Amino acid sequence: MSEPEIHPVPPGFAARAHVDAAAYAATYRRSVEDTEGFWCEQAAFLDWITPFTQVKDTSFALEDLRIRWFADGTLNASHNCIDRHLPAKADVPAILWEGDDPAERRTVTWGELADKVNRLANVLTGLGVRQGDVVTIYLPVIPEAVVAMMACVRIGAVHSVVFSGFSAEALADRIADARAKVLITADEGRRGGRAVPLKRNADRALERERAVAHVVVVRRSGADVPFTPGRDLWYDEAVAAAAPHCPPVAVGAEDPLFILYTSGSTGKPKGLVHTTGGYLVHTGTSWRTIFDWHEGDVFWCTADVGWVTAHTYKIYGPLLNGATSVLFEGVPTWPDSSRWWSIIERYRVNIFYTAPTAIRSLMREGEEPVRRHDLSSLRVLGSVGEPINPEAWRWYHRVVGGGRCPIVDTYWQTETGAVLLTPIPGAVPNKPGRAGKPYFGIRPVVVDAANAELAGPAEGNLCFADSWPAQARTILHDHGRFLRTYFAPFPGRFFTGDGASRDADGYYRISGRVDDVINVSGHRLGTVELESAIASHPAVAEAAVVGYPHPVKGQGVFAYVTLKGGIAESEGLRGEIVTRVRDRIGPIATPDVVQWAPALPKNRAGKILRRILSKAAAGDFADFGDTSTVADPDVVADIVARRRAARVDGAAGVP
Ligand code: WTA
Q1: Strands 540-550 and 554-563
Q2: Cα(413) to centroid of ligand 1, in Å?
Q3: DSSP 8-state code for residue 398
Q4: What percent of the chain has pLDDT over 90?
Q5: Tell me: the pLDDT tens digits for 457-511?
Q6: Element spanning 343, H or E
Q7: How far apart are CA 378 and CA 401, in angstroms?
Q8: Which atom of ligand 1 sits closest to the CA of residue 414?
Q9: How confident is the model at residue 348 (pLDDT cuts 50, 70, 90)?
Q10: How far apart are CA 349 and CA 368, in angstroms?
Q11: Which of 149, 165, 366, 567 is 20 to 30 A (C-alpha) from 284?
Q12: Closest Cα to atom 11, ligand 1: which residue?
């Protein structure tokens, strides 16, 4: 890859920024030489109930893994996110909400947010939710999602938000794993003019997961939905009837704050557990620094509440700082492809944070939909979730940002809880396609396959040498998997699952996952999870799923499917397989290509040779490398012949 151009910090930006180049260098050096001292100072950002006396107690050694921050302190997340802003901001908007329908808008002030959170916290207590219990939240992007999260943490309960685009089955799996007793959902969601049947999905999930004693239902659309008396209650009625004050409880810094599921390279989604003190310290301080937020700025992150991006930088980050943010329920292309730009203009958004896949799809609509709106309020742009290709970066910078806004390409994960690599605006000049430099206190290392640390410009596996406060502490009910996945591959280090290179200026470029995880439109999907969904179809003998380069999604889902003996290939069956995946996981996992494979290429030990399948999917037929391990070479020839005959949008080698 050629060396990208450098975009210096825009004139005037650095003067006002929280961090300039000199401050970045000095603070970074200090933060890695005295990590404990640095984070101890950062922790003063929060109100603590019991001050901590220990800051950092961590070890990445496999036999002695410890990740503990501020361990003997106590605090309450909802107090820090809401109560402490009330004296100055009770009447100031916390949330500027716009529904899928552009005519639907609501402003929620800090005072109103506090009132709803207190009441819902009392409702949950009344339903028997106690400190440490898990509440599953299956809601669209509406203010009640924020209220629900905050109500949980006010009473020390642990929220587990499940993306509202997940199917009933995926919801049921996550409820079961978390052992949730209460579910908070809505009658329906709205996306792109269409209804999303949340309550119906929830009911289907609960046919299986009967341990859920209560379902709190938000009336979002007013649709007539099934209601189970005794189990279900309407949110608005319950909140109106509840007592208006609920004191925030003292929660240990190392007590769980939330669980969030993500796909891994083996079967089942994993519930990453985040704890309270470290997460809030890192989230609150990094949000402010990375987006260079100043009092009065309006922030908008487009992520759905079901993902970590929304947890950390749409909800907790802004709330902890008393910042006003936009919440938008819909999609960028409805009613037309200027929707996002109209929102930026209407709310005078200053800081905008989104994913490369959205930029690529909006880029296809041309510049006119952007030009129709006044985007002069924008000052900082952000990117997250997948590598941003330089073409998309330049378009975002020039057309959306008017050439004057730094872009913070933020690299992090559900597991890391907060950003680890980014060009801090005002301090680090931008290079398109590079995720920049380490955040304070963060020690990235690039290692080879033998775990040797590579110095200077290098390419290899991306690891981190030391802990940071927002790091996930474990996988719920499976600490062994946590150790195996993140700490065993490169002993003594945290392994991200990503490949990366570092250039001569110390900038990192993420090359993508090196495990069996694919990144589709910024969503992580485990190939094994997709394969099990496909193989659950009665006609399927076996399936192998790989990612391939997709012009908008980054990676697309390419499925090779072997049918059981005697079953004929047909378009109908192809459709059923696609539907099966959507039912099992959700529309985000929809296979882009299903290619029939009378057999899959395997080695003599019976292991599927994914490298060959990936290359074929990408239309890269030139060099399959060493195929001498393939048990049956005719299988490869057949895969290639069928792939050559197929038309696959965006992949190379399309006939
Ligand atoms: C990828 C999202 C390149 C990466 C916050 C990581 C990125 C996975 C970037 C985590 C970026 C995230 N540049 N790749 N700026 N940000 N990724 O858990 O592969 O949904 O491992 O967290 O997304 O996805 P997750």
Answers
A1: antiparallel
A2: 5
A3: I
A4: 92
A5: 999 999 999 999 999 999 999 999 999 999 999 999 999 999 999 999 999 999 9
A6: helix 339-347
A7: 7
A8: 18
A9: very high
A10: 20
A11: 165
A12: 411
Residue 312 CA: nearest ligand 1 atom is 5
Domain residue ranges in the chain: 521-645
ω into 549 cis (within 30 of 0):
no
Residue to substitute in 413, 517, 588 for testing ligand 1 pocket (most ligand atoms within 8 angstroms of CB): 413
pLDDT exceeds cutoff 70 at 261: yes
Of 412, 415, 555, best ligand 1 pocket probe by most atoms within 8 Å of the beta carbon: 412
How many angstroms does the Cα of residue 524 sit away from the middle of ligand 1?
Answer: 8
User: From ligand 1's centre to the CA of 471, what distance in Å?
Assistant: 15
> Is the domain 521-645 a CATH 3.30.300.30 member?
yes
In the predicted structure, residue 132 carries a pLDDT above the cut 80 = yes
Reported as a single tens digit per residue, the pLDDT across 75-92 is 999 999 999 999 999 999
> For the segment 549-591, what is each residue's pLDDT rounded down to a tens digit?
999 999 999 999 999 999 999 999 999 999 999 999 999 999 9
Name the residue type at position 395.
W
Q: How far is the CA of 513 from the centre of ligand 1 (A)?
A: 9
- In whole angstroms, what separates CA 163 from the centre of its chain? 10
* pLDDT, tens digit (0-9, with 9 covering 90-100), for 430-451: 999 999 999 999 999 999 999 9
Q: d(Cα 52, Cα 50) in Å, to the nearest integer?
A: 6
Ligand 1 center from residue 12 Cα (angstroms) = 31
Nearest CA to ligand 1 atom 8: 413
The number of residues making up the chain comes to 655
Query: 504 C-alpha to center of ligand 1: Å?
Result: 23
Q: How far apart are CA 163 and CA 161, in angstroms?
A: 6
| Residues facing residue 159 across a β-bridge | 135, 258
**Residue among 322, 325, 298 nearest 310 (CA):** 325
Q: Which residue of 384, 464, 555 sits with most ligand 1 atoms within 8 Å of its CB, as the best mutation to test the pocket?
A: 384
CB 60 within 8 Å of CB 493: yes
Which residues surround ligand 1 with Cβ inside 6 Å? 262, 307-309, 384-387, 409-414, 435, 496-498, 510, 513, 519, 524
What is the structure's pLDDT at 409? 98
Strands 270-275 and 256-262: antiparallel
- Residue 412 alpha carbon to ligand 1 centre in Å: 5
Determine the residue of 261, 408, 411 to mutate for testing ligand 1's pocket, defined as the one with the most ligand atoms within 8 A of the Cβ atom: 411
pLDDT digits (tens, 9 = 90+) for 377-412: 999 999 999 999 999 999 999 999 999 999 999 999
